[in-house]
Amino acid sequence: MSDTENAEAVAESELDAEALGLPAKMDLKVDIAEAGPCRKRISVVVPQSEIDIVRNGTLDEFASKASVPGFRVGRVPRDLVRAKFRQELADELKQRVLVQSLEQLTEEFEIDPINEPDMDVETLEIPDSGDFEYTFDVEVRPDVQLPDFAELSLKRPTREVSGDDVQKYIDQMLLEYGEKADHDDGAAIGDYVSVSIDFEYEGAAVRDMAGLSLRIQPSLRFKDAEISDFGSVVAGAKTGETREAEFTISSEASYVPMRGETLKAIISVSSVQKLVAPELDSDLLARIGVESAEKLREEVKDILDRQITYKQRQSAREQLLGIIGESADWELPEELVLKQVENALHREILEMQQAGYTPKEIRARENDLRQRSVSVTRQAMKEHFILDSIATAEKIEVSPQDVEMEIMMMAFQSGETPRRLRARLVKTGVIENLEAQIRERKAVDVALDKAKYEEVAMEEDLVGNLDVEAVDEAICNVMFARASAATAKSAKETSA
Q1: Alpha helices in 326-357 (DSSP H)
Q2: Burial classification of residue 409, based on how many CB atoms lie within 10 Å of its CB (0-12 exposed, 13-18 middle, 19 or more buried)
Q3: Which site among 74, 89, 176, 326 is 20 to 30 Å from 29 CA-CA?
Q4: CATH tag for 149-168+284-465 (out of 3.40.630, 3.10.20, 1.10.3120, 3.20.20)
């Protein structure tokens, strides 16, 4: 057996502190100081006497398992083991001292870390003699003060799903199966246009998007900007005409150099089409996947009921978090917020999918969130910590059955099989978000069950006209960055 195999065999063996004579509890010297929002700086000193106990236990274990030519296993002299496996012993000693001291630290001082400690383990070395000291920063969960939920007074918006609501939803659904027909009239809200958009910044062309098929809505929303007057700009436009609009890049766009900058969009129309809704006949019902028009109405009513529940939960959640948030004077580290931007976005999209919103509605919401990604994520994380504290205090658990039921409901809405949807959620890592959302939803429900609340009329329509057309792309991407750099270089050469 090679030296490497010897070391691996020892490292893979189960660590039994009592059998190895290791200390069940180390005599640590610990200093904890504030290092910023939700961040602690922790200094730990492990006395030499404690290190010597671990060092001797580690050496004994290596000696009991080491295989050295000329000696039976377990009969190799300790001095020979110490010399032959010097580096392996040092690595194992460091690992055991760090693991045991960190576990003890977490238990004794009730540290609740968000992420792994910010520590460069490779640079740490345990001295042959003397104490071992190490310092690290760690992001910790904020201290949330929860109220007595029984004393809370909340309002819960409610309404009944009417036949008109169901019909309006079906009318919009039918448009998804409609056919486009060319026409020579000027473009209007609801029409489809095939366009190419050239983007200019300070008079220079920096980006183009060709072959876009857009439904004309009041606003055109990208991942990092919005042309808020898109509908009025292209109103009346005919095939071959060009329209222009100015707009501003979001102040939280991922491409930092262009945040808040004004661009011009030159919109070239290559065709205008009207959307003609089909008849709800047996063929279309088969395409939708329902047995009859009555069954479709039942399923639509179920979707709208779920959306009412979603709106009620969102309202209750906002009120609850607002009350608790009044006393939450803690801030979150900027780097922690930036790490969680995509995660927070996935969670919001999942909630809308669960509530039965259409892909177009979700895409429009996604682009809106991306334009406000940092502030939205910061708020979402604060809400998460508050709801997590409620869930912990109430001992809320999420069972496998809870997750499977949620996946079945989402699969029905998306038209996927539960098995395929689950595989996709697992592959993208979103399954963990789903479990967290179910837990947080249960936390809101527990608070609502205990709170006093008043039912009020829900003012907003269940089925509204989507006034935003969303493009699944950012304007400021790598292409934009290269074009901007080339423009700047050209301007510099010209001035020279």
Answers
A1: 334-339, 341-354
A2: middle
A3: 89
A4: 1.10.3120
Q: What is the CATH architecture assignment of 3-139?
A: 2-Layer Sandwich (3.30)
From first to last of its 496 residues, what are the pLDDT tens digits of the chain?
Answer: 454 444 444 444 444 445 444 567 888 999 998 877 778 899 999 999 999 999 888 888 888 887 778 787 777 788 887 888 888 888 899 989 998 888 888 888 877 777 778 788 888 899 989 999 999 988 887 778 888 888 888 888 989 999 999 999 998 888 888 888 988 889 999 899 999 999 999 888 889 999 999 999 999 999 899 999 999 999 999 999 999 999 999 887 878 788 899 999 999 999 999 988 899 999 999 988 889 999 999 999 999 998 898 888 888 878 887 887 776 666 666 666 666 666 666 666 776 776 666 777 777 777 776 666 667 677 777 777 888 888 888 899 889 898 888 888 777 666 678 888 888 888 877 777 788 888 888 888 888 788 888 889 988 777 766 688 999 888 987 656 555 555 554 555 555 5
Structure tokens at 177: 């199966």
Give the integer Cα–Cα distance in Å for 412 and 436: 21
CB 49 within 8 A of CB 65: no
CB 210 within 8 A of CB 268: no
Residue 256 has what DSSP assignment? G
Nearest to 44 by CA among 139, 140, 135, 137: 135
Q: How many CB atoms lie within 10 A of CB 52?
A: 11
